[in-house]
Design brief:
Elements (H helix, E strand, L loop, with lengths): L1 H49 L2 E6 L6 H7 L4 H12 L12 E6 L5 E7 L4 E7 L6 E7 L3 E11 L3 H7 L4 H11 L13 E11 L5 E13 L2 E9 L5 E4 L21 E3 L2 E5 L6 E4 L2 E3 L6 E3 L4 E8 L5 E6 L4 E11 L6 E2 L4 E5 L10 E7 L2 E3 L17 H12 L5
Antiparallel strand pairs: 1-2, 2-3, 3-4, 4-5, 6-7, 7-8, 8-9, 9-10, 11-14, 12-13, 14-21, 15-20, 16-17, 16-19, 17-18, 18-20, 18-21, 21-22
Helix pairs in contact: 2-3, 4-5
């Protein structure tokens, strides 16, 4: 009898122990669950406080930042405080229409930040501070990621189409045309089957925008004839492009006094019928049928020896260049050069017009050498200076390095 009671008591003790263990396990599980719930709530609160939703809009033309912020839902007082903070780090007169302005709000709608994209590398930020009316402004600079890309392609139509078919932007085509533009006219010279190879530095900005930097080396094969360019520097340290043999790809003069192509409406002639004077007389220049206001550029470095009204020539600019050359730009609507000033090759010196004896807007361009008028269309343009002898060894090393970057 006593034995049975002991056995029953042992079972009771075992059962009690098991019950306590289960209760402890349940309590531990409940405590762990409560901790996880509390942590989840804390994380959710943190996310709620830190999450900022931005409403981005382009800044309209003629709209000040203050008004744009009000249009985006800020009250006038808050907009004023944001503008005052922004002005402490950035001149708001430099705001550009079309650049994005974004308003950042928390999930409960409270203002958290205002940002304005200044350019691809800089963003103006105005953030709320600890105090209710505290705003702090800063300009954040995000430098682009730089890389060197190898590009190759074939021309079946225009150079622009060939570059874009290769997956690149039209800006690269413009740069190539500028480099080889002294030897090739990319309006008329390209042939189907022409090829190009380029080693170019690219800059990739936050948001994915890509910009082209320096072209380190390039090749264009036109109708089987290769033209190659290597980036180096001239005797003054300025960047310049040279052929592999060290000769300059640039010429002392550009091939046209106009920034954009224009048809020749009247050529150089010793006897041409004048449409206004109704008589035959020499026409010692070339007329380009450009539209009114088209930019006129200096074909070479020089000094302005005349800029003003000159009888039947209308508004005229006359430049003196080296080696006895002078150029004249007639019938301008506007003159953008001052007598005595130095101008650089490609600098805009006026706008196309119809002043003086002219039946319509056009540019009459003339060139003299040692006082004698020359036919610019038939003139062999003088080359720029080659790589100086003292820089030949440095150029050779740079050339080999640059050409090695071209794709095979």
């Amino acid at each position: 009898m006593k034995r049975r009671i002991l056995i029953w008591g042992g079972c009771a003790l075992v059962g009690l122990t098991a019950g306590v263990g289960a209760w402890r396990a349940q309590a531990t599980a409940e405590a762990r669950l409560a901790l996880e719930v509390r942590r989840a709530a804390e994380v959710a609160e943190q996310i709620r406080r830190q999450t900022v939703n931005f409403d981005e809009r382009a800044l309209p033309f003629g709209v000040p930042l203050h008004l744009q912020l009000i249009r985006s839902g800020l009250d006038a007082a808050t907009a004023n405080r944001v503008v005052l903070a922004a002005q402490s780090v950035f001149n708001l007169r430099q705001l550009r229409a079309g650049n994005p302005v974004a308003i950042g709000r928390s999930l409960d709608g409270a203002l958290r930040a205002v940002r304005y994209r200044i350019d691809l590398e800089r963003t103006l930020w105005v953030r709320t501070g600890a105090a209710p009316d505290e705003y702090r402004a800063e300009i954040r600079v995000v430098p682009p990621a730089s890389s060197t890309a190898s590009v190759t392609g074939r021309v079946n139509g225009s150079l622009f189409e060939g570059v874009m078919d290769a997956g690149e932007g039209p800006e690269l085509a413009i740069e190539l045309a500028n480099i080889f533009g002294w030897d090739l006219d990319f309006h008329t010279d390209p042939r189907a089957g022409d090829t190009f190879r380029v080693a170019v530095e690219k800059k990739t900005y936050d948001g994915g925008a890509v910009r082209y930097a320096r072209i380190l080396a390039a090749e264009y094969v036109n109708a089987g004839r290769p033209y190659r360019a290597v980036l180096f520097h001239d005797a003054r340290g300025n960047p310049a492009y040279y052929a592999p043999d060290g000769s300059s790809l640039q010429k002392a003069f550009l091939r046209s006094p106009l920034k954009f192509s224009a048809p020749v409406t009247s050529r150089f002639s010793r006897s041409r019928f004048h449409p206004i004077l109704k008589t035959h007389r020499p026409h010692l220049g070339i007329d380009y049928g450009a539209p009114y206001g088209a930019p006129v550029q200096a074909i070479g470095d020089g000094r302005v020896v005349f800029a003003g009204r000159n009888g039947g020539s209308g508004n005229m600019v006359r430049l003196r260049h080296s080696n006895g050359y002078e150029t004249m730009y007639l019938h301008l609507s506007r003159i953008l050069a001052r007598p005595g000033a130095r101008v650089a090759q490609g600098e805009i010196i006026g706008k196309v017009g119809a002043t003086g004896l002219a039946t319509g807007p056009h540019l009459d361009f003339r060139i003299t050498q040692h006082g004698a008028y020359r036919n610019f269309a038939a003139l062999r343009l003088p080359p720029a200076e080659p790589v100086p002898q003292r820089l030949r060894e440095e150029f050779a090393a740079a050339r080999e390095q640059a050409l090695a970057l071209l794709p095979n």
